[in-house]
Amino acid sequence: xxxxxxxxxxxxxxxxxxxxxxxxxxxxxxxxxxxxxxxxxxxxxxxxxxxxxxxxxxxxxxxxxxxxxxxxxxxxxxxxxxxxxxxxxxxxxxxxxxxxxxxxxxxxxxxxxxxxxxxxxxxxxxxxxxxxxxxxxxxxxxxxxxxxxxxxxxxxxxxxxxxxxxxxxxxxxxxxxxxxxxxx
Length: 184
Fold this sequence. Notes:
The protein is of the alpha/beta class.
């Protein structure tokens, strides 16, 4: 039974990957590379993926933080807030986006809903083509509960983005390892 579910999950992720368009990826990469500080955020499981991405950005050599960290610096026009919100309407994420906008911080949104409230104020919108909590998907039906497919895809998207940044910056896994915590 587990093997059947594994195959179905991989099929769903493949479907989402096939539908994914690279629109705005290079703009996101340029903004990540040129930012003084990067703050990542998301609610729930989207937040866990964002926290993991923030960690990898640190391994890449960027000054990266997760928004709940106590050491998040003062942000300005030279910084970027990367928000992951499937619906693009999550109240806490919308509030953060509005604060960032007020302070002229660049905002990138990764979402299923490119017409959401957060998308309207974001500088960069990356659309993930998966079902969200507010919308069913016309071509993908997931057997997984709630928004699991979107959360899984976000993790994989972030890992693909890290690989792309590694390539762009000519970094190897060994280079990243030198920035990994040695307190383990």
